[in-house]
Amino acid sequence: MSQQEPLDRYRRLIEGSDVGLFQTTPDGEIRWVNRAAARIVGYDSPEEFTAAVGDIRQIYVDPSRRDDFLREIEAHGEISGFQYEISRKDGSLRWIEVSARPVIAPDGSVELFEGTVTDITRKRLLAAGLDAVSSQLEPKEAITRFADVLGRVAPFYQLTLAVVEDDHYRRMISVSGPDQPVWFPPDERVPLAGNSMLQVVTTRSSLVVPDTAAGTWDFDAVLRSRGVGSYAIFPLVDESGVFATFNVGVAEPSSLSEEVVDLLESITSAVANAVKNILVVEREREAHRQLAEAGRLKDEFLERASHDLRSPVSIIDGISEILHVHWDAMDDDQRRQRLQVIQRQARRMKELLRRDMDVALIEAGDLICEPRVFDLAAGVREAVEDVAVATPSHHFEVSTPSALPMAYADDERTLQILANLVTNAVKFSPRGTAVRVRVSEEGSTLRVDVEDEGPGIDPGSRDEIFEKMARLDTHAEGTGLGLYIAKSLVELQGGRIWVASASSGGACLSFTVPVADAASSVP
Description:
This protein is of the alpha+beta class. It is 44% helix and 23% strand. The strands form four sheets. It has a six-stranded antiparallel beta sheet, sandwiched between helices. A five-stranded antiparallel beta sheet has the order 2-1-5-4-3, with helices on both faces. Strand 4 (93-104) and strand 5 (110-119) form a beta hairpin. Helix 11 (376-390) packs across helix 12.
């Protein structure tokens, strides 16, 4: 064996090593690199790398880090685990870690630095991701911090953390790339059906869509219209299956390389537990918010009820005292009149309590309607007759077709809506005028119109009258809750409510309820 053969074997060994090896001079000249080192910087061969890069500082994102490298070696005689960021041939960024020692020339000067170089991008990204999502930061801030790190390695257009919820997914957090518009608002719920997310949830495997213009999935057209040319979805999996996904969208089609996908794929499984912690924190915060809101609603209910009941209770208490003290001195008519006042105030207290309870239930999301098949026309006639008996100051006209289909709604709540509208019409129209109530069929709904002869409602204020505590006439009695409750009840039953000008010049308030079909008619 010649002396050259071991040298050749050694040269082939180090040149073919998977570990990056290098030699540079103190002033930054690259004397030699092996193939692994060249590939870390994005070049196919050592020759291509050394021909393109004359000074090692050319690949530093921050050239001053080279000075830090020299100072570290001078201070310690060698360097280990020195990290810095480089710019590769294609412009992408990577983190590398270098260990090196000086090679001393015969005259005692430093001739070369030689050592090893390792791509630690995956490690650095994983650490940044875990540090962000495992911290006590707000979820939005945590993901944004992680996005800052990810964006240097894989420039993205949109980064989303989506939570799978039954047959939909919800964007919990969505972060745009630098200088990009926010096209994907958080908390938007998107159906899984026809969506690429469904395949990821079903297969528990990552999915790359190279070109949204191909229209492979229903939602791709929306993504394309918002600037996403290509995207990848990475599942976060636990014992129950895919509970969330990590979605990365880029602007250009087919620009997610296998290397980037592999990198992202490797970190998503590692951050799954941290994301679960974020979801636990989110649920706890929502529970605390709901408890706080329930407490607020309870306090508001008690305050409103105590305020509203103060007047009728005072009246009942006063008249009761008068009856107790002066009963024998009164004739039958006087006693009857005072008892009637007590009866009216008791009815008023009952209505106030029901109103306040309805508002509390509406705001807590606990108001329930129980639909059933009933004769709306007959119910309207009876309800208006009851109001007419108690309100002799106005005329009431009811118009219903002879043949009208049955309604499918909560009959008591529907007539409560009507009573609120009729009471409102009486309140805002002059004494002696008419209140007209019409029932008609309109498509798959039944429509009720309540028209008065009052001053009408300005078009610019028509949406406001259904808001809580709305009172367009501050001199009118009432709390402004009747129409707010009516609107909530109508919408809860799948109908709609609106206001328009009446032919008489007053206001016309209308609402709809569903028509009973064959299915709803089955007992």
